[in-house]
Amino acid sequence: MNDSKEKSVAAAIGSVRTVNVSVPVNLLSSMDKMQNISKTVLGKLGCGMCHSGFDLRFIQEIDFSFNAKGEIAQH
Amino acid sequence: MNELPEAGVGMIYLPAVESLMESQLHLLDVIELEPQTLWYNKDARCDSFNFNIEQTKKLQEYPVNKLFHSVGFPVGGTLLPGVAELTLLHKHATQIKPFWISEHLSFNIIEEKGKKINTNFLLPPAQTKEGIAVAVEAINFFQSHFKLPFAFETGTNYLQKQLHEIDDGTFVAAIAEKADCHILLDLHNIMANQLNGRQSVNDFIHQLPLERICEIHIAGGFFHNNFYLDAHSGVSSNELFEMLDKLVNRLPHLKALIFEMLPEYASTVSKEAISKQLEKMHRIYDHKGKNFASVKRYIEKTIPDQLLPYSAKEWETTLGRLALEKTVPESGLSVTLQQDNGIKIINELIFNFRASMVVTALKLSTRLLRLSLGTNLFTEHLKGFFAQSNPGVFAFAVAEKYAVYLEDAALEMPYLYELVAYEMAALNTLIDSEARSVKFSYNPFPVFRSLINGQLPEAQSSNMPFVLNIEPDEQHSDNESLNYYAVYHN
């Protein structure tokens, strides 16, 4: 949500008891530029790719950089 | 063994690498689909699953050949997949019309108190005479559900060769001959096995019936904790390309050469590098079979006929339980395996796989937990969940179980439970396209924003309730969703 919309939501808070907001299902994806398509999310909801390698997503989440050569460096 | 059509050079298709793949279409003759990655499960408590119809329609329209590479029902174990799963796979295949279908020569299910448990990892089968018979039976069962040619894939094995094991190449050769099927040679897996102390690539290939190899997989990997990992992490090394170049010459029935890369690594590899990878593959593929000399390589007598101290079932149960960090009864096999450093790397890889599922499905809730608890405590917290919950196959079902685990934990953490409720509702709406509403006792937007930026949300001064009405995707065009504007109804 952009700044002007955040301000208008804030203004609405002052005039109503409950703020009702309609949001698209992929709201978080659209707010997060790193993963901006819902089909990507759907792909990740599916049956996991059972393989024998290194699933990087957890490492990425705990804020490490991990390049294609397997070098890990904490920010 | 049936003659196969020419599929050509291509890469694995996954929804998250779709745009990358589309940028390379001019270099692709074929795409290989991992069908189960397009399946979803609506409910952790039942087996009802289906495949994504919209995605399937799109795939049908790609002007390239298609192959199916099944990733959920490996053919190296004593426990066979359910008929419902194979029936859905067949239904999916009739939509996509792949040239052939392949599966892994591995196992990923063990039994505990009569219940089947998925290991979330492809484990090496019992490499014994009994193991050959087990794999042949599993292949026959798998094949009986399709009217498609079948190939099994040669796997990675992070364990050291056991005293009673048949050679890797001889084992593969015996299964292919007895099941009378094709071989999908994953050259990167075999190179990984060599680098990790198992049979050399040359010796492995020397033992194979080369005319049965219909497909080759190549990938990139890296060393981690003294193991070379089949990570699918980028373009292939020069070493692997040299091996490929020598081998392809000798394969008379090679019909596909496929590059594998996981989406998580896509951002670390340029499109130009992928193009070069595919161009090299084309150059090598063009001279396939030019130096083939027929040699009968597999000989029954090469398999040692000795009494084994363990059965295939015992192998699977012991290795599967150790892989999942469960207790095992003391035996010669369990002691040997526990001393093998390969078990530790398998434990680590499985933890990362399971943890990745959780943090991907419940991104904001888990980020709030990690930022609040710290990375070490958060990791321990996830281990606690994994210790009391068996691995799941579907990220959605795992998220559902994790939400219950969190609920039971009754953590005193601001924002957490409403955030979990919101993320679970959004996942449900993603799957069934039904609108849902979630109540918040706070303004969720600053919380979302902070967490997306990797920061703990600040305390809120007012407690104005919010209701987020989650609308399915089709009510918003792509453009709208990328430039989100809240619509609110007072």
Overview of the molecule:
The complex is a heterodimer of chains A (about 80) and B (about 500). Chain A is about 40% helix and about 15% strand. By secondary structure, chain A is α+β, with helices and mostly antiparallel strands. In chain A, strands 2-3 form a two-stranded antiparallel ribbon. In chain A, a hairpin with a 5-residue loop joins strand 2 (about 65) and strand 3. Chain B is an alpha/beta fold and about 500 residues long. Chain B has 18 helices and 17 strands. In chain B, helix 8 (about 240-250) packs parallel to helix 9 (about 270-285). The interface between A and B is large, with 57 and 104 residues. Strand 1 (about 20-25) of chain A pairs parallel with strand 16 (about 465-470) of chain B, so a sheet runs across the interface.
The tally of helices of chain A reads 4
Q: β content of chain A, as a range?
A: 15-25%
Report the uncertain regions of chain A.
33-47, 64-75
Largest sheet of chain A: 2 strands, antiparallel
Question: Segments of chain B where pLDDT lies below 50 for 5+ residues?
Answer: 475-490
What's the overall geometry of chain A? elongated
Largest sheet: spatial strand order of chain B: 1-2-5-6-9-10-11-14
C-alpha Rg of chain A (nearest Å): 19 Å
Portion in strands of chain B:
15-25%
How much helicity do the residues of chain A have?
25-40%
| Class from secondary-structure proportions of chain B | alpha/beta
Number of strands of chain B: 17
Q: What's the overall geometry of chain B?
A: globular
The quaternary organization reads as heterodimer
Largest sheet geometry of chain B: 8 strands, parallel, barrel
Structural class of chain A: alpha+beta
Order of helices and strands of chain A: HEHHHEE
Interface with most residues: A-B, 57 and 104 residues
N-to-C span of chain B: 68 Å
CA gyration radius of chain B, whole angstroms: 24 Å
Count the E strands of chain A: 3
